[in-house]
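Hey,
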Amino acid sequence: MEIILTIALLVGGTVAGLLWRKGSFLRAIRRDKARVQLEDALKHIYDCEYNRLACTLESVAGTLALTPDKASEVIARLNALQLVTHDGRELRLTEKGRDDALRVIRIHRLWERYLADETAVREQDWHSDADKKEHLLTPQEAGELAKRLGHPPFDPHGDPIPTEEGVIPAQRGKPLLDFHAGETLKVTHVEDEPEAVFALLVREKIFPDVVAKVAANSRKGLELETEGRMIFLSAIAAANVRAVAFEQPDIAPEASKTLLSLRLGESGRVIGISHTCRGVQRRRLMDLGIVPGTEVTAELQSVSGDPVGYNIRGATIALRRQQAEMVFIE
């Protein structure tokens, strides 16, 4: 009887322990979820202030996909923490609330910069990945990441990255739709939301630093000439792009001669790499010696024509057609 009682106590204790640990785990999940909601709300309020838009209970509920009642709870907690003020209509950040918002935004944009420069993660996945990471990294880890990346001032979309002290560079450029036919521009910012519009811009290879010439501008949209190709952006897509006037482009928008145009035995001198070639792929080409001034000769070609072997600084390097057409030559 004593043995049975002992076993029952042990089993009961084990079950109780498991239930306690499970309860603690669930409570931790709820706490993390609540913290994420607070930080997301701070980001939204900051974005509204930065873009000089009114921030309301309705806008918080819509952005965070919450019911009005749940959004009210989030705002009440932010108010109790002295992170926001609410005059009954509009929400505003306190100084502490702005510091917390900038901390989250800094991590988000640094992580997107890391994904763009150091990984092969697709452009369409940068934002969602950074949305998760922004709630996990500490300010110290963000500082180490910034140092590793060379303290970049802008993320890969052209959004300014707040410094560790909370200083944020000014937004650059004007809406693409403000440019007229005949003007040459340089893209400074590409909005990554909504996802469908961003995916379209990615397909058309519209990124920060891309140089283009406006061929036509109408209420329907813009026709652009860039790197030897013509593209059309609807007014909706163009509204998500900002740019600056560019008087002396480093690579003319109409430039079309690339490594791919070389016949076997022909040589060319590199004048630049397309701005649509970014991150790991761009760094690999530069590591191979494909930099302005390098002479490249087409030496070998596979039966299918892809890849092609090029002599670069005495070594034969195989490049895919997609890579070769991103290298401009003269």
